[in-house]
Amino acid sequence: MTKTSRHWNNSDARSLLLGEFHDLHGRSYHSYQEAEWYVWFLGNPTRYAMFFLFLHKYGKGEMVSYTDLTQTKKIGQINLKIDSIKSTIRDALELKYINSYKSDDDKRVTLYDFNSGIIQEVADYCFCMRRNRMMESAKYIHLDTTLKVSKELNEAITKDSMLDALSSIVEHTNRAVEAKLSNKNQLKLSSKAKKK
Amino acid sequence: MKINKRTWSNLDARSLLHGEFHHHYGQGFHAYEKSDWHIWFFGNTTKYAIFFLFLHKYGKGEMVSYTDLTQTKKIGQVSLKIDSIKSTIREALELGFIRSFKSDDDKRVTLYDLNPDIVGEIADYCFSMRRNRMIEASKFIHSDTTLKINTELGEAIRSHGGEIIEAISSAVKYANGALERAGKVVTLSKKKN
To answer: Which of A5, A168, B24, B164 is the most buried (most CB within 10 A)?
Structure first.
């Protein structure tokens, strides 16, 4: 097994493991737990890997090609097997989770895309996941972290490439907090954000 | 399928789907992609559900009982099957990922816990996941979101009342501190009347 460069004591480990469970638990707060597409796509590692490939391509406004599928990796960094790709794509087409098209450039090439009938639900699922992650992160930092975990997170997020993005999220959350507090006349802003 | 209350334009949908992929991609940044325990626990939905049950119990300083296992649900809110639980636990014991103990209160009861040899790696994996999530969330809000998504996220945060506001306030303070140390503080935090 790979060695860790960081060392976690028992208290840190408990905080991190419990936090990870809370993240998983938070991920269940969406309306699609029993939706057919959700159960199907997240049902095994091959479909799971393909689901995220389809998200990626849809987000970029592109379609999924056979080459994309063969380059996709599942848990353990293992490429998807050709037989598995073929049967999964056939299943997804039959279940109408995806559509197939012939490429404009080369009619021999088939391309795949999400069925537009499920896009709204998939997008809403993605929104719920993002919202749940944000809330869990905020709660973890507020209540469940340890000094060591906090320090290490600081280390990780003060890298140059992160500063602009972090600055933006701080501004965003400050606005949300200020809007809320101005409605309720409560004084719960962090001292930094209130400083004059 | 259920009807959702929110509607997303094509632009919003693309942003959300792409963001979710980025989150998934970010989850790959850890040192345990090829670790035996990672591959094994994430290999199917039963093992995955059991893994998070072990995280939960370890975090609380408790052990996993057979009752906990039978109450665990996997994708689709389906309870784990008894045969599947038995074979998975047997395999995890054989592979040395978990250990079994007899309960102090009742010697007929077997309890399970993560093997301490892999707890350090699992904790580091959890840290990497948390770090990656924070970085991805910051990047999404900074670069990839849309006005509608921002509004809906703000709405969701506001609708969760005082507790989440306190948590966010705490996170803001935390992030402000990180930014100040790097000498790059956002305008709102520096604002003077």
So the answer is: B164
